[in-house]
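Section 3.1: Structural characterization of target chains.
Under the original work plan, the team committed to producing a structural model for every single-chain target entering the pipeline before any wet-lab resources were allocated. The record below documents one such target. The sequence was received from the expression subgroup and is listed exactly as submitted; it comprises 293 residues.
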Amino acid sequence: MEPDFIKLRDIKPALTGYIKEAEMILKSAAYPDEDAVHDVRVLLKRSRSVLKIIAPQVAGEFAAREISALGETGKMMSLWRNRTVLRKSLKELKKRDPDLFRKLKNNEKINDLLKRPAEQEIPAEQESSDLEKILSTLKKTGYHLRFEPMTGLDPQLLLKELEATYIRVSNNYLICRNYQKPSNLHEFRKSSKDFLYQLWFFRPLNVPVIKSLEKKLDSLTQNLGRYNDLGQLLKGLGYKYEYTANPPELDELAVLIKEEQDSCLAKVWPLAHKIFYPGQKLVNVLGFKLLII
């Protein structure tokens, strides 16, 4: 006999854990490496997604204030990530087409982006200052969380907020399918991550179905992220097509990058359609029968 009551995962311990883990990672070394930066940024995004879903049920400006503070922290860390990602993307393309990169061996921008971190000029003083600000923000957020009561959160209202997120993502999906441009895809990726991170708290409603949905969303957001990184690479190279204005090999690299972007989106759209097709309801996506939570 199926139970008539399902308890959602507790939000406050998870949210507090995200902030504590981010602090621990940043304090574990003098300066965070590529993996540390990635892990902390994911934890910050998870935290902001959780704050969004509980915002209507917490007092005053708490949620909005912490979302803003963690958002600014994430922006600072994105600057650390960008160069590493551009280098990684270029190395992957070089491995795919070494002959093309031999033709580009004298391109200064490419050579600069391919430099190892130790060879780059790093504004150590500025980055050290940013790290102190980030740690200070995390400490303040952790302190505020300690005194913010969350024991009386209404699960039905949480589900309502999850549905609002789902509707927003569905709308972003349709915008992208009708007006496919980088800024729209970026918004689709951000809202999809919110939905993914919020969904984790509802997994007890239907474990196998929701775990499968989380896996699909993770693949979708990973490919949208890859698409965005490749777009940033084109910007980092300062590339702009004009007839006969560029060396042929640079135009060829741009085409290669565009092909990679096309491949990413080819993996996104079938998944996105299954989850967010027009008229789809959240309860159908989650596949749960019990409404008592």
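The longest helix spans residues 62-96.
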